[in-house]
Design brief:
Layout lengths: L1 E4 L4 H14 L3 E5 L11 H18 L4 E5 L6 H11 L3 E4 L7 E3 L4 E3 L10 H11 L6 E5 L5 H10 L3 E3 L2 H6 L3 H15 L5 H4 L19 H13 L2
Parallel strand pairs: 1-2, 2-3, 3-4, 4-7, 7-8
Antiparallel strand pairs: 5-6
Length: about 230
Amino acid sequence: MIGSLNGVSSGGWIRYAKEMEDAGADALELNIYFLPTSLDVEGSDIERSYCELLRRVKEQVKIPVAVKLAPYFTSMSNMAKRLEAVGADALVLFNRFYQPDFDLETLEVLTAPSLSTSEELRLRLHWVALLSTRVRPDLAITGGVHTAEDVVKSVMAGAHAVMMTSALLKNGIGHLMKVSKDLVDWMELHQYESIRQMRGSMNAVAVAEPGAYERANYLKVLSSYTLRAGTR
């Protein structure tokens, strides 16, 4: 059982982390939901605060600690490396910040959550495929996992775990059984004997064209869209 901790003050994080461990949690997830809006906060300060928070929690607990990240760091690879150095046991990619909408009739700001779609998985696949052979912490994907195919893609990118929330809110808890059955059916159809066999088989090291994960693929993407549009 993994306890997901979303705190405010460093003292609160540390206290509740210890209490979760004492209550029997097998691991902790630091769900850092922090959206800086001050004009005076620099990016380096934010990065430093993440590392410092992780360091202080790791000093207080003996169980594994994962850090749930937002995708907005200037250098995601470097941030992953820094968290590894501080002692992160796993990284969870990525946090979804809920964005407001406007009601044009009442002129109110709407704060209702928007559920994810499978389209959002692409950002997670991109970074897990790049990081899975370059950092020690396990990698988990959250956001955009709705189907067995989404699970397969996540594992092939290199994920050790996938998380599902929006799909369960839409379809009910029984959807887990469907995804599990569909996953087994897919693996049998494609002759995969285990999850381990699939893991990382399409990361940046394993694929024939690693440039697909880099800036060098930009023109190829645009060209492929033009070619597809021309066939319609």
